[in-house]
Design a protein that fits this description.
By secondary structure, this protein is mainly α. The protein has a single domain, classed as Glycerol uptake facilitator protein (Up-down Bundle). 69% of the residues lie in helices and 0% in strands. It is built from ten helices and no strands. The termini are far apart. The relative contact order is 0.19.
Length: 234
């Protein structure tokens, strides 16, 4: 498997399982409806574990442009490969969102809340304040990328369970830092599904909130770069 295909498949799995758990919790007549934030945070953590485990051997399982950019800034990844990885991640995120929509299509038809439908594709702020929201995303992404760098450098040697610490890291970010913005902490994970929300024929959907779209993108990139700087200083 090529690195491009690995990143596409891995990010597709991440979004399919991650946005899938959101759809399960917020859409009407789903068996997981109203299961709560803990379920969503845990679902995203497990989604990351599965995705990293599946494609780590082929691409290193970045699955996130902020990770690719952060590793490149830290001298651990070639800058020339960043655009290729980012494109694969974006396309994979779009594919994952498409599969969530197919899976829950009848539930979208049964759900009147347009905001809930949008939430199954992309993130949005609990309190809209673009600067504060961007800072929150930068902090969350910093924790993710810096944590990944420290975990990899520790080389604990868990064998097949090497992806577990990273999955637990995302779970912790969701529980602790996810309340203000929904913890995108991944530009592709937010932008790709947002594009699909705009394209797909979802009944009674709202706009795709493009005014907010750059917040998780810019915040994620800034967080990844700061993580690289801090890691380098240490």
């Amino acid at each position: 498997m090529t690195p491009f295909l690995g990143e596409l498949i891995g990010t597709g799995l991440l979004v399919l399982l991650g946005n899938g758990v959101v759809a399960n919790v917020v859409l009407n007549k789903s068996k997981g409806q109203n299961a709560g934030w803990l379920t969503i945070a845990a679902g995203w953590g497990v989604a990351l574990f599965v995705s990293v485990y599946a494609v780590a051997a082929s691409s290193g399982a970045h699955l996130n442009p902020a990770v690719s950019i952060g590793l490149a800034a830290a001298g651990k990844f070639a800058w020339a490969d960043v655009p290729v990885y980012a494109l694969a991640q974006l396309l994979g995120a779009m594919l994952g969102a498409l599969l969530v929509w197919i899976t829950y299509r009848s539930h979208y038809e049964q759900t009147d809340d347009a905001d809930a439908k949008l939430a199954t594709f992309c993130t949005g702020p609990a309190i809209r304040s673009p600067f504060n929201n961007m800072v929150t995303e930068a902090i969350g992404t910093f924790v993710l990328v810096f944590g990944i760098m420290m975990i990899v450098s520790a080389d604990i040697g868990l064998g097949a369970l090497d992806a577990l610490p990273v999955a637990l890291l995302l779970f912790a970010i969701g529980l602790s830092l996810g309340g203000p913005t929904g913890f995108a902490v991944n530009p592709a994970r937010d932008l790709g599904p947002r594009i699909m929300h705009a394209i797909l024929p979802i009944p009674n959907k709202r706009d795709s909130d493009w005014g907010y779209a750059m917040v998780p993108v810019v915040g994620g990139i800034v967080g990844g770069l700061v993580a690289a700087v801090v890691y380098g200083l240490l």
